[in-house]
């Protein structure tokens, strides 16, 4: 069965006994409901060098009548993926999808006696009912868990010998919109009770909690045992109400996940609609900003604007306690659209949490950032959303194919380093250069050699780029990518010179074996000053001599060296 294997500081997806790099894309919400529709999608995905598709399976579709299940369309879809050599990650839209219950069956929606709704305060401070099943109700999660467990049992029977389905997402962007907490009678009773003693004891037993938790509650460990109401522990108002909802939703999702894992033990995760405390963590480059745009585009700065109770960074410790263990979820995954990519990766590799990005921007802006995720953070996969309706011009399509194709052909090398020596690799990207903004630079030191990554030199306008650098020992580095150049600097105090000793453009076969295509020197290394990883069409800017050689394979091996001289050498 597909499973996660622990690495030096994270986990990798194992498929048929081997590490697997997911080059993924997420479909629109209704796409996987139709095998006929998907028959038009599979070839396009293969052409884009995608090997894994994320798509939803909805509760209302598989159990339209309580106790009567229909998996016929899902089976056809799985057979279609299998026929085209593609894998699937299924998204369980059960009780919760984007902080609503719109994908629950009609028999759940109509029966408010068995499945009570969440009540919130509207703008006039009046209670109103919303399309969201209350998490303060065991009958709701029991029904959801039965359906999810039945789905997973069927998957094991239908696909267990094939591993077409690699992983399952449990619910989708769970939480509450429109208010910071459920204000139904059952929720009021729970909110007025003490913080559950098991949760409080767990949090207080931890030597360190998530940095965003500690930033909000720096004196949490000093909480007095005799006063443990939600507001006494977390503060009055929204802060306490959000943590209260996180406790409820995490318990609910944990129950559902446990039923699925018991039936078929393949990896499972929950995704999160991100928030922001500080607008500086947003990356809104190129986004037209009108009034309120940063709040909406970035997820929201207040619980209720973003889903209150979801597994945002400052609530991760509560979610990890209730929903993440060997019998429930394997990890929490961020949907990453307009946040700073590096910042989010750091938040969700907390305590070696496996990194998987189930939703992100489906454009060159997003694709370039996947190189940072794979190279620096050991990401298992990155998945642009709406992949089946992305309309790319020929240049963009070629870029996407090249990026995925390059990751695919170098997957064995990258996965090996991810697992055994992640400190020897880092990823990076460069966006389109904007007038008046600095060009940017990435640096990392390996032993006594610092690697400095800049945009690739051109006589014309510098362009975007992406890549991974892997340290192979003894000054040797593997360079993968396009549109950048590397300079090397010895960190030895006695060093008087650092240069490039040798450099070769490499090609790779299907077994991952590298061989030399061209030996590069002289002009291509600016006489040993730096090594360029150019694009297919470098911008000569009208310069009459074609000095920069266009890239062929986007793979190179460079050996840097330094000299340590003393007085007798002069």
From TrEMBL:
UniProt GO MF annotations: beta-galactosidase activity
SUPFAM superfamilies xref list: (Trans)glycosidases (SSF51445)
GO CC term, one of those recorded: beta-galactosidase complex
GO BP of this protein: carbohydrate metabolic process
Record carries keyword Calcium: no
Domain DUF5597: 406-531
Glycoside hydrolase family 42 N-terminal domain boundaries: 44-191
InterPro entries referenced in this protein's UniProt entry, alphabetically: DUF5597, GH, Glyco_hydro_42_N, Glycoside_Hdrlase_35
Pfam families for this protein: DUF5597 (PF18120), Glyco_hydro_42 (PF02449)
Protein's UniProt keywords contain Hydrolase: yes
UniProt keyword terms in alphabetical order: Glycosidase, Hydrolase
Family membership: Belongs to the glycosyl hydrolase 35 family.
Protein name, entry field: Beta-galactosidase
Organism: Cyphellophora attinorum
